[in-house]
Write a structure and sequence with these properties.
about 400 residues; mainly alpha; Rossmann fold; five-stranded parallel beta sheet; 20 helices; 5 strands; about 5% strand; globular
């Protein structure tokens, strides 16, 4: 039985039916998005206009391949304009607060690995440590002015951001069974580099093969320089002893990360690809289903396999360049992590010479009790729906499996 096209709430289905007659409405042209952002932000200086080429390529590819329904186009436009507004606000803030540039980002910890390999749980657990600083979803969504320590947990922007997540849950409750999201949970690096027009999150949200091929050929130092600027901005209001950051998208960009953050420490998560790829295809299907009615499951399956095979290959090449720095990398086996998450946390802390305090340990323990696996429902998917087979996955990822013992 083929996988079903995502269902729509009746008002959205009716709106899409009426609005389909207006082809390519609303506009996703880069110039139109920039004009809308400058009107909304009341600033005109993006700080660096180089990112506009990436946005232009993205929106052109959306129009060519993504087949967005009208509400999907509205949502995409809102997201891209909002990213531009944030960038305008950040540039204006930095202009009036040049001292933010003196903020030092010291020895950040990056969690990398294929999606569905425990990266999110590890990220959320490490965020429970008061000594760790993660970019929370609400402050990434509304970074200006930077959050202050005094109101970090009571800022009204938290409720504003949570309302947006609640609306998203109504649109796609199945999405939250796959990937938990909330205003006060850590946000991934892809959301930050997305403000620079460079992010694998757009591949997950939209069918944009030409854009993805293009960004895979680009130098990523500029997006991570923006990423560092963003962290400095957040840190200027609420200090960080240690940044902990996460994104599977960081797999393909490890060289750039280690250039911009030369003292970074890397936790690389590992899991059998045959368990990862169907789940990841289902996640991609579900996200794209928010924006489009025209989904081809087998096409998504091929795209997922091709993309993450390439990104994992790039990560292994980068790892090979740093073979003489074993102290920089910790390899985490997913099986050991799910068997005893807190024991794995202790191993990671010991490896990097970080103290796991009693307070941090207890907060992590409480988080695990409050967030059991499947809290928001069970993620169900079928490998066959996406044209995948265990043999093909094993062949594609054989070198990786042999190298890391998965």
């Amino acid at each position: 039985m083929p996988i079903e096209t995502p269902s729509r709430p009746l008002p959205i289905a009716l709106f899409n039916g009426i609005a389909r007659r207006f082809s390519h409405w609303p506009s996703l042209a880069c110039n139109d998005l920039a004009k809308a952002a400058t009107r909304q932000a009341r600033f005109v200086d993006f700080g660096d206009n180089a990112f506009l080429e990436a946005i232009s390529r993205l929106t052109h590819d959306i129009d060519q391949h993504a087949a967005l329904h009208p509400m999907g186009r509205i949502m995409a436009r809102q997201q891209l304009v909002a990213d531009m507004v944030r960038r305008l606000q950040l540039a204006a803030w930095r202009k009036h607060h040049p001292e933010v540039a003196s903020q030092v980002i010291s020895k950040p910890v990056f969690i990398i690995g294929l999606p569905r390999t425990g990266t999110t749980l590890l990220f959320n657990l490490m965020a429970q440590d008061p000594s760790n600083r993660t970019p929370l979803a609400w402050e990434v969504d509304s970074p200006c002015p930077p959050a202050t320590t005094a109101t970090y947990y009571t800022d009204p922007r938290i409720q504003q951001a949570q309302k947006q997540f609640d609306q998203l849950r109504k649109l796609s409750p199945e999405l939250f069974a796959i990937h938990e999201m909330a205003a006060n949970l850590p946000q991934e690096c892809v959301a930050i580099t997305g403000m620079d027009g460079m992010s694998v999150q757009f591949f997950t949200l939209f069918d944009v093969p030409e854009y993805q091929q293009w960004i895979d050929q680009q130098c990523w130092i500029r997006p991570y320089t923006f990423h560092k600027t963003f962290l400095q901005h957040l840190q200027s209001g609420h200090a960080a002893t240690r940044w902990v950051l996460k994104s599977p998208g960081n797999l393909a960009t490890l060289d750039a990360i280690l250039t911009v953050y030369p003292d970074a420490r890397i936790i690389h998560t590992h899991r059998t690809p045959a368990e990862v790829m169907p789940s990841l295809a289902s996640l991609t299907w579900t996200f794209r289903g928010l924006y489009s009615d025209q989904l081809d499951a087998k096409r998504i399956g091929r795209q997922v396999l091709d993309l993450w095979q390439e990104h994992l290959s790039r990560a292994m090449i980068a790892r090979d360049k740093h073979q003489g720095e074993p102290e920089r990398f910790f390899d985490m086996d997913y099986r050991d992590f799910v068997a005893d998450p807190l024991a794995m946390i202790q191993r990671i802390y010991n490896y990097f010479g970080i103290e796991l305090t009693g307070i941090a340990y207890q907060r992590m323990k409480s988080y695990l009790r409050a967030n059991p696996q499947g809290k928001f429902g069970k993620h169900r998917y079928n490998m066959d729906d996406f044209g995948m087979s265990k043999d093909d996955i094993a062949n594609r990822f054989s070198r990786y499996c042999e190298k890391f013992g998965v």
